[in-house]
Amino acid sequence: MPTGGFVSPGARREVLATDGEDEAEGGGTGGGRIIAPALADPVEEVEEAGLRPRTLAEFVGQAQLVEHLGIVIQAARQRQQPVDHILFAGPPGLGKTSLAGIVATEMGAGLRITSGPVLTRAGDLAALLTDLQDGDVLFIDEIHRLHRSVEEMLYSAMEDAKLDILIGKGPTARSIRLDLPSFTLVGATTRTGLVSAPLRDRFGFVGRLDLYAPVDLRAIVERSARILHVTVDDEGATRISERSRGTPRVANRLLRRVRDFAEVRGDGSINGATAAEGLDLFGVDQLGLDKVDRAILETLCGRFGGHPVGLTTLAQCVGEESDTIEDAYEPFLLQCGLIQRTARGRVATERAWAHLGLIPPPAVPGMQPLF
Questions:
Q1: How far apart are CA 103 and CA 82, in angstroms?
Q2: In this structure, is the dihedral angle defined by the CA atoms of residues 154, 157, 160 and 166, taken in order, positive or negative?
Q3: Residues paired with 163 in a beta bridge
């Protein structure tokens, strides 16, 4: 076959099988299988999936993003074309995966789900793309973690619906180009800055998801309670939403734990007192802080007396990895105004001292004020 020639869709399986055999010789797993992320807990995943909204009308919160997305989807339906490629960015648990499913549902298309770390070889992505049907939605979670070679293969697929594949090695290698069906790529990332500019510029719509307001979280808790057949009153839903860190995923998790508490220690229904008692039992305080959050504040205020503490030192005192502290716990503490980042290290704010019921130390003469 000549270099750069086109291959009919009927020849895709043969091409991919050959590609998979070549890569398998190097220790690969074969390029012809469809990659999907492994489920850590199937029961929890099924329950969580049941709580996801399926249409834009069911989606709560993110009003501006939902309005923009609705216009994009409606315009695509009117033109009878696939939706432009979409990138959703924001902290974990805000609904990026749910929105990808909603795009597929609103367009009446199939949904294929994978994640960036899973796609380690070009053959993995080729197998996924060539197995898509016309109009399908391909969702790639954590897209900023794509391997460089896989990412570059996406460029022509997103722009021209073509897939360039190199078959063989050495002097016998040849390049072929496959025609792909029209599809919509939906990417999700928690680190927008790590998405390369060439990839980011190929998305026609970029949506940023923000933390949810308590009123929206309360509506989400009430909706999830109806799906889970849990009786919860207004005060109970409010207590759960106030401690959910602005994140629907956390709200649903706390609802399930309070449900367990109510069934074991109560009559199965959730009111304000039951919700507060259950959340206190599971170590979630009024601000939504858990055991590690409080350990960070207690280390800054108690052990070091309010003086700046380096990240590595803080992580060792708490018993967590530095990356975990910086990525999982510190952002929420910063948003709540409980800690500050300074050139000398992390410092607890006056609000942190008040939350722990402690009195800040007086300023030392000749030293820079702590607050």
A1: 10
A2: positive
A3: 178
What pTM value is reported for the model?
Answer: 0.79
CA dist 190 and 93 (Å) reads 10
Q: How open is the CA angle 180-183-187, to the nearest 5 degrees?
A: 120
Tens of pLDDT, residues 293-339: 999 999 999 888 888 999 999 999 999 999 889 888 998 999 899 99
Report the C-alpha gap between 175 and 208 in whole angstroms: 38
User: What are the tokens at 332?
Assistant: 């929420």
User: What is the per-residue burial (b if ≥16 Cβ within 10 Å, else e) of 223-262?
Assistant: bbbeeeebebbeebbbbbbbbbbbbbbbbbbbbbbbbebb
Q: Which residues are catalytic?
A: 96-97, 141, 190, 249
| Alpha helices (H) along the chain | 12-24, 42-51, 63-79, 96-107, 122-130, 148-160, 197-200, 214-227, 234-242, 248-265, 272-281, 291-298, 311-318, 322-324, 330-335, 350-355
Backbone angles phi, psi at 290, to 5 degrees: -105, -165
Positions of the chain with pLDDT lower than 50, given as ranges:
1-46, 364-368, 371
